[in-house]
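Hi F.,

I've been meaning to write this up properly since the lab meeting, where we talked about keeping a consistent format for the predictions we share between groups. The idea is simple: the sequence comes first, exactly as it goes in, then the structure tokens exactly as they come out, then a line or two of notes. No screenshots and no reformatting. I'm using this chain as the first example so we have something concrete to point to.
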Amino acid sequence: MHAWPASEVPALPGKGRDLKIHDTATGGPVTLDPGPVARIYVCGITPYDATHIGHAATYNAFDLVQRVWLDTKRQVHYVQNVTDVDDPLLERAARDNVDWVSLAEQETTLFREDMTALRMLPPRHYIGAVEAIPGIVPLVERLRDSGAAYELDGDVYFSVEADPHFGGVANLDVAAMRLLSAERGGDPDRPGKKNPLDPMLWMAAREGEPSWDGGSLGQGRPGWHIECVAIALDHLGMGFDVQGGGSDLAFPHHEMGASHAQALTGEFPMAKAYVHAGMVALDGQKMSKSKGNLVFVSTLRREGVDPAAIRLALLSHHYRADWEWTDQVLQDALARLERWRAAVSRPDGPSAEALVDEIREALANDLDAPAALLAVDRWAALQEETGGTDEGAPGVVSRAVDALMGVAL
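Output, unedited:
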């Protein structure tokens, strides 16, 4: 599966700082010091609807991670999946009486278009669940054969007790885990399971649903968590730098994925940092496909909203914060974009050296994009009030805002 075209990242003078970021597993900041190649895995979409602002906010956060690392002169090995077969996709296709494969392809194409418009840097590997099945099957077989998984009426479940570190990502108590498991695709009340929290690794073929050859597992399709584990281990290996996604993925998805990988390899941890973006609300409730309270990136683009303004709206909130999308948020972003473009359109201006340093410092400090925006606001205000004599300054600001925040002025 192909990703989307990469926008050029301008080169800046000097070198950025190492990234300090909040790790969900430890509950505090960690300073990441990757080698020459930084490794990141970000969970992708289940393509049964268009990209909404909540999706965009999550991918914006991890785009910033990439840009901070690139500014330290590292390469970035970024991997993202597409869950192109899963219950929500099949249910939506059945509801709309469309082919599930066509629906997945249609929505994935739209997602690529949205990411391109927003100048999100693409992953090096963009892998669909279906194309990953040949690599998933052997992992499930290994877990089963080692005793870390078991069969139940033809399905295969992972035993959470096989990983002594289980629970160490989201750090929730059993009651909370059980509740979230039921809400987020698990089946804690299924009779016969060794532990209510045990997640499915392989679902035996169901009538009327797609299935694939699972070798000794029989016909079926993979569970959600093992999909990402297979892709991450294949392309990044254990101990990669960042596992990322929305905060609703901490449990069960990232918790289970970590345990799968740790039981498979005997190594710990799967990722050096588990990083989670906050949720975006609309009209007082979290944006959710199931609720239908969504603002779509593609709709905003069709209405003529500049993608750079959408990106500025996302950047105006700290990535870990829960926040609400409103018309005012967008209007503020449009006004900011207009001010910035006016400021960099002049032939000279105030020195930009200190500004670039401020942006770098803010983003290296747990991706503090709002602080970076305020720094540019101050430079733009000074440009408007007093101007300056540095002929290269507007160009430096324009390149810095593009390179570090993905906003094209």
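Notes:
Residues 306-405 form a domain with the Four Helix Bundle (Hemerythrin (Met), subunit A) fold (CATH 1.20.120.640).
The chain has a mean pLDDT of 97.

If this format works for you, I'll send the rest the same way.

G.
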